[in-house]
Amino acid sequence: MTAWPIPRVEDGPRDDAERLFGAIRGMAAAASFELAAREADGLGEALARLPRGSAVSVTWLPGDSDADRIAAARAIRAAGHDPVPHIAARGIADRAAFDRLAGALAEAAEVRRLFVIAGDTRRIAGEFGSALELIARCDPARHGIRAIGVGGYPEGHPAIAPEVLEAAVDTKLAVIADKGLAPFVVTQFAFHAAPILAWLEAFRARGNDAPVRIGLAGPANLRTLRRYARICGIGASIQALSSRGASIARLLAEAGPDPVIRDLAGSIACEEHGDTALHFFSFGGLDRTARWVTAAAEGRIRLRPCEAGFETLD
Question: What pLDDT, on the 0 to 100 scale, is given for residue 216?
Fold first, then answer.
């Protein structure tokens, strides 16, 4: 990787800037990514930009077929990365259907990790009404699956009470561990560090030591981010996009995750927050996100004054 000098900033001592700069680089270098199944076709250049062996999730969309999901996982594996397909419990008819899909993913793309969600639909295709039901009733290990991930919600869920969400994630992690599988969590994306840190501290305080991938939106225009925020029920932190000292012109052209990454890099302590890393939803396109994250991982960044994030340097 290209070596770049430590940037000078006006808002703190140089040693603090060096520590922050190193933390940002480290977080970006360890990131995972997410794309839609049909995006994988023709994304060779974007996948090639990612560090070899990156975890790349394949989101579950109702319009995608199992063939689309398998093809996407195969493309990710062929590019030298680790595919992590999503499985929507409400979209799976029964255990036999799960076995067919999990077996095909393992055979075609050596899938070893799955991310299980309920699925954003009220229609239940068959046997499973929730992620917990699928996790409890199926046997992913028979297909070589070694780890199962579940969702975390730093800003809550528009239809589920916070205490119910907390109990659900704790139970799912316990069931996964009881099956001899490694649990992990990927959080819903947020645009502000405060709810992420509060959720993470409460999660660890309940005795959970599973790895956590902190969901962030990759760089995209403000209209795109607002649309996804409404769909996903992200409320308060969308306000942070226009309150961190960035110009209106910049926000209209592109809103990046740099302010929240800078805040997280300055706040997360490994001994307190455990195994954490970043996970990027590529709403602006995987290539755009890959270029941005690669620049940060290689240290091609300049810290903005007044704690207003950082910019990447071409």
Answer: 93
What residue ranges of the chain have pLDDT lower than 50? 1-13, 231-238, 240-253
- pLDDT (0 to 100) of residue 123: 83
CA distance 206 to 169: 11
Handedness of CA 153, 155, 161, 162 (dihedral sign): positive
Of the options 3.30.565.10, 3.40.50.300, 3.40.190.10, 3.20.20.220, the CATH number for the domain spanning 14-312: 3.20.20.220
Could you tell me what percent of the chain has a pLDDT over 70?
A: 82
State the number of CA atoms in the 13 A half-sphere of 292 facing the CB.
24
d(CA 88, CA 16): 43
Q: Using N-to-C axis directions, what is the helix angle for 95-109 and 66-78, rounded to 10°?
A: 30
- Amino acid letter for position 228: Y
Q: How many angstroms separate the CA atoms of 282 and 40, rounded?
A: 12
In one letter, which amino acid is 151? G
Question: Strands 301-303, 310-312: parallel, antiparallel or unpaired by DSSP?
Answer: antiparallel
Residue 85, C-beta contacts closer than 8 angstroms, at least 6 positions apart? 57, 58, 60, 69, 72, 73, 105, 111, 114, 115
Q: Which pLDDT value is given to residue 236?
A: 47
Q: For the chain, what are the domain ranges?
A: 14-312
CA distance linking residue 134 with residue 291, whole number of Å: 36
Structure tokens given for 115: 């991310």
Q: What would the two tokens of residue 53 be?
A: 């062996």
Tell me phi and psi for residue 98, to 5 degrees. Answer: -60, -45
